[in-house]
Amino acid sequence: LSSQSDLCLSRSAYLEKYLGPCRSPFFLPTCITYLLIFVVGVLGNSLTCIVIARHRVMRTTTNYYLFSLAISDLLVLLLGLPLELYELWSNYPFLFGVAGCYFKTCLFETVCFASVLNVTALSAERYRAVVRPLHAKHMVTHAHAKRVILVLWAVSLLCALPNTSLHGVEMLKPRFGLTFPNSGVCIVVHDRWIYNLLVQVTALLFFILPMLAITVLYVLIGLQLHRERECFDSKIGLNQDGVNQRARHRQVTKMLCALVIVFGICWAPFHIDRVMWSYIDDWTAENHHVFEYVHLLSGVFFYLSSVVNPILYNLMSSRFREMFREVVCQKDHRQLSISKVTLRSVVSLDFSDIGNK
C-alpha cells in the first residue's frame, strides 16, 4: 500500500516524505538571528585580533589564548555559519560533494575541541599565575603559550578525524525505475553505533571533564585570592605594588571566570543535542518534534558563543575598550601616552601577567 501511494507522489513530494521539508520552517527568524550574530561576531573578534596583534602591551600570555579563541570563533562565523544558513534554506541536495561534507564536519569538530582546550589551558595558566607565581615566572612565557596553542590545535584536528571519516553524502536509493540526484545529504554513512559511541566519548572528554577541571581551578584561584586578601588586610603599610598586583589578579580572574561560565552555557546545548541524537532509536513524531527545537536552540547558542567573548572584554576591561575605540576611530596607536596606559593598568583590568617574556 505504501509503495502504491509513493508511486502517485511527485518527486518533490517523495523527497519531502522521506527527507523532510526542503526548507526549515524556522528559516526566517533563524536567518535574522544568525545574520546579527555574524555581523557582531566578525566585527568583535576581528577587533580582538587586531588589538592584540597591533599593540605590544596587549601581547600577554593570557591574551594569546584569547587571540586563539578569536581565531576559532572567526572560523566558525566565516566558514561554518554560511553553510548552516544554506542548509536551513535548502536541506537537500548537499551541493559541495563528499569533500565539502568532510570539510564541514572536520571544521565544526576541530573548532569545538580547540575552543574547550583553549579555555582549559587559559584557566590552567591563570591558576599558575595566581596560586603558583614563582613557578609561573619561569613557565608562563610567550614561547610556552605559543607552543601550547599549536599543540592544542593539532590535537583538536587529530581528534576531529574519526568523526569526519564517518560522514559522507548519501542519496535515496533508486525506486520505480527513477533516481533521485537531488536527495543528497551530508550525514553519517557508516555504522550508527560507532558514531553514537564517539559522540558520547567526545562529550565526556571535551566538555564534561574539562568543565569540571576548570571549575576546580577557579575554586582554588578564588580561595587563594581570598587568603591573600585576608593576609594583606591584616597588615599595616602594605606595599602599593602588592595591592595593585592583587587587584589585577582579581579583575582578570573575574573576567575569565565570566568567560568560562558563558562558554559552558553556550556549549552545553550543543553537546546535549548530539548526545540526545545518539541515544534516540525510536524516532516517534513527539521525539522528532522535541529534537527539532533542541537542535535549533543548540545552533543558536553554538554561534552565540562566538559573539560573547569580545562583548565581555569590552564590558570588563577598560584597556580592551580603549583599544577597540582606537581601532574603530583609526587613531594612531603610538599616540597613546605611557601615563594613560600605566594608570589603566593600576585601576583596571590590564591582562598583564607574571610571565611576559
From TrEMBL:
The chain crosses the membrane at residues 26-52, 64-82, 102-124, 145-164, 197-220, 255-272, 292-315. Keywords: Cell membrane, Disulfide bond, G-protein coupled receptor, Glycoprotein, Membrane, Receptor, Transducer, Transmembrane, Transmembrane helix. One of its GO terms (cellular component) is plasma membrane. Gene3D superfamilies: Rhodopsin 7-helix transmembrane proteins. InterPro entries: GPCR_Rhodpsn, GPCR_Rhodpsn_7TM, NeuromedU_rcpt. It comes from the Eukaryota. Its main location: membrane. It is found in: Cell membrane. Residues 44-313 form the G-protein coupled receptors family 1 profile domain. It holds the Pfam family 7tm_1. One of its GO terms (molecular function) is neuromedin U receptor activity. It is a multi-pass membrane protein. PROSITE patterns: G_PROTEIN_RECEP_F1_1 (PS00237), G_PROTEIN_RECEP_F1_2 (PS50262). Belongs to the G-protein coupled receptor 1 family. Receptor for the neuromedin-U and neuromedin-S neuropeptides. This is Neuromedin U receptor 1.
